[in-house]
Each structure stands twice: as C-alpha cells, then as structure tokens.
C-alpha cells in the first residue's frame, strides 16, 4: 500500500489531509479514487490506515480507519557523516541509507573533497536530499524521515562528535592491514537506543592527519572487511551490519 | 597501489606481462614509468608485487619482486541470482556486489521483469558486466574476478539450485510480516567454504507462485530487516551481513 508523510497538523484523531506533491501523486500518478486506502505517517511516530473520502485539486481528504503500530525504525540511531563525494553519489547514499535505516545524514568537507559547496549550493543540495530521503522513507515503509543536516567543515564534525554515544570512522588503511575486530566489538557493546556517528571519507579517503584528529575526538577506526569499498558502499555496509546485528540476530 | 588481473599464461615464476586495456591504463592514464610498482593477480589465487621493467605500445613487462599472500575472498561463496532490473541497475549491482565479495552473478527472467533480453542482448550485457566486475575487483583489491553467468529463465534458476549448499530468497512479504529469524539462523549453520545462491526479484518483486516454487526447490525465504529494500539494495544487504558475520564477527 502507498505511504505518505504528512505534517502533524494535518493529522487529527479522526482524519488526515494530504496536500502538495503527494496529493498530486495520489490523484494523477496513482489515479486513486474515493474509497481507496493509503497509509499516512506524521513523522513523529503516529501511523494510520486511511480511506480517501474526497479528492480536490490540491488536497486529498481521508478518514482514519485504524492506527498502525509498527516498528520499522532501527534500535540504533545512526548518523552517516559523509565526506562530500563527486556527482550525484550523495543522492544514492541518502536513498540507500534511508532504506537501510539511517537516522540522519551529515555531509562534511575534508582535505581530499574535490567538490566544494558554498552556502547557496549547500542549501539547494540539502533540499534535494531531503526530497530523496522523504521518497525513500515512503517507499521503504519507514515511520520517520531521516534528517539531512546542513553541510559542515571537518572542524565542526570534530565538535559534533561530543553529542553521540559512539563514534566510528571507516578507514581503508584498516582494511588493508586486516583490522577485523573493532566493528563487531563495538556493536556487541551497544545497547538499543544509543546514538552512533559514522564518518566516511570522500573518494580519495581521509588523510592520516584527519583520522588522527577523529581518533582524538573519540572515534574508533574500523575496518569493514578485507576488501576496499568505494565511499558510497561503506555506509551501506555499516548500516546493513547494524541492521543484521540488532534487527535479525537478536 | 594499482592492481591488475592478467591471464595465468602471462604470469611466469619471475615475470608478468600486462597487455591490452590495462597496458594502456598503466602507460597513458596512470603515466607510470620503469621502476614503478603494481600488484598483479592471475585470477587463480596467485598475487604478486611487480616492478615495471619495460613499457611498449601494447605491453608492459614487469619482474616479480615478491609473492603476496592475502585473503581478500569471502569464506562463503555467494552467487547473487538477480531478477533482471530496469536500466543500468544491474551494473550497479555487479559493481557493489563485487566490492562486497560476491563470487558470481546470475541474471534471471521472472514474470514481473519488465526488461527482456534476447540472446544477442544478453551476450552484450554479459560482456559489459564482466568488464565492470573486473574493474571493481581491481579497485576493491580482490584476488579473483567474480563470474558473470549467462542469463537464465526462472525454470533454469530452479534447476541450478541443486548445485548449491544453501539457497536463500529475499522476499519482501517476509519483511512486511516481520520475519527476522531465518537469515541469522542460516548464517549460524554455515561453515566456511559453503556455496550459497541468493535469489532477489526484480523491481516488482517475485510472485507468490514463484516464491512457492523456489521454496519447493530448497530455497529458504528470508526477511532482510523491517524496511522494504529496493531490488538493488537487497544484494548489498545480504553480502554485507555475510561479510560482517564471517569476516568481522569471527
């Protein structure tokens, strides 16, 4: 069944109003009619099965059939801090990362980033990524849309680390020397509900100095298996491993 | 360091000759010179550190400095059987799957596949996918290039299942009803060296009848966490979970 996120103000105890692009999607793309059903989420934990009562140009009026209790969200609150990559790789990272359960994405600049975002470009990219996150959250049946945070400098990333229970940096030199213990050890220590910040370098990787600074700020440097992963594959690996460990193994 | 796969015939006890596109890559793209070093693999388990001795138009002559003993290959031999998806998604699946350790890729047709490959198109696609697998294997420092198998019908997929120790089908209806036990249970049973066939449907999924036929052929239907994954994300999830289980947790 199709899922849509609505603002909490549009979800009362009995009814949900769907507006904007989603209203258009229901009427024009899905060609739904009065009596059809959709699932609506207020992005704050409330999810409901709804029946369409009225279709207008910019608004779809529905009544709530029943609330849906579900747990689609990862018990580990993972923020992917991603060194800004080239092209549209960040869009793929946000799309796949949303499916795989990330709670937030934090783009950051580092010495080997080739792409630079000024404030205007950063703002535009953030809006585009938010749209991708919303659509991926709907498609993957999540109860919440992950946050896309404004891009930060490497120095700001170091400062933000203090807000998280655990900090991980994926470091390809660890994969090369065969470091295989730390990620599993960390996941074994984590209790449901903790927050984790995962830093992943851009295509050229993080410099040794940057990794040293991250470690000083409390990050644990982890290998992600013996093969060298592309920057856009590293976040999928970490999120899949966390899902497997906490959602399937337990 | 750059890595190249060469044919076993081009790797003697003392020297390696690199030809074709790779020779061009070394000379023109990387602009390497006599005395520079590369790593060569014969795709049959032999890997060596080599020094460039002579650069000619179509051939690079190197001498072996020392053999490299390494274990970059997954202890579980995973074949990803992928329902043929639209566009260039299969290219992304082969690229990411190679990084994540797949041993082979087997494209198959099923009732909800939108794209049909005739023999000529299938052959051309296979060659393109083999090139992607080779490049991804070099970039991710693998010792072997995964196989890209010729596309098969759904009926042939059912027959092939007999060749594998374990068979898994990723089924989104399992995710919807919250099936979370089977994948971890299966991985706990597996011993290093076993072969696993993982069937993943195309964008529209597998039909209930196809899933029933797969189960009859010995496949175990598994949920991949509580969220609904796109077809191209499912293989990354399974390969990451297998890598985490066998390469990091142990």
Describe, in plain words, how this protein is organized in 3D.
The structure is a homodimer of 250-residue chains. The first copy, chain A, starts with a strand and ends with a helix. Chain A has helices spanning 20-29, 89-99, 119-139, 154-160, 172-176, 182-189, 208-216, 231-248, and strands at 3-5, 15-19, 37-41, 47-55, 59-67, 77-83, 104-108, 147-148, 166-170, 195-200, 220-222. The first copy, chain A, is α/β, with parallel strands linked by helices and 250 residues long. Chain A folds into two domains: 3-67, Hypothetical PUA domain-like, domain 1 (Ribosomal Protein L25, Chain P, Beta Barrel), CATH 2.40.240; 77-248, 3-Layer(aba) Sandwich (Alpha/beta knot). In chain A, strand 4 and strand 5 (59-67) form a beta hairpin. The first copy, chain A, contains eight helices and eleven strands. Chain A has a six-stranded parallel beta sheet, with helices on both faces. A five-stranded mixed beta sheet of chain A has the order 1-3-4-5-2. Chain A binds chain B through residues 70-72, 96, 99-101, 139-142, 176, 180-181, 183-184, 223-230, 233, 236-237, 240-241, 243-245, 247-249, and chain B through 70-72, 96, 99-101, 139-142, 176, 180-181, 183-184, 223-230, 233, 236-237, 240-241, 243-245, 247-249. Chains A, B: Residues 72-243 form the Ribosomal RNA small subunit methyltransferase E methyltransferase domain. Chains A, B: Specifically methylates the N3 position of the uracil ring of uridine 1498 (m3U1498) in 16S rRNA. Acts on the fully assembled 30S ribosomal subunit. Chains A, B: It catalyses: uridine(1498) in 16S rRNA + S-adenosyl-L-methionine = N(3)-methyluridine(1498) in 16S rRNA + S-adenosyl-L-homocysteine + H(+).
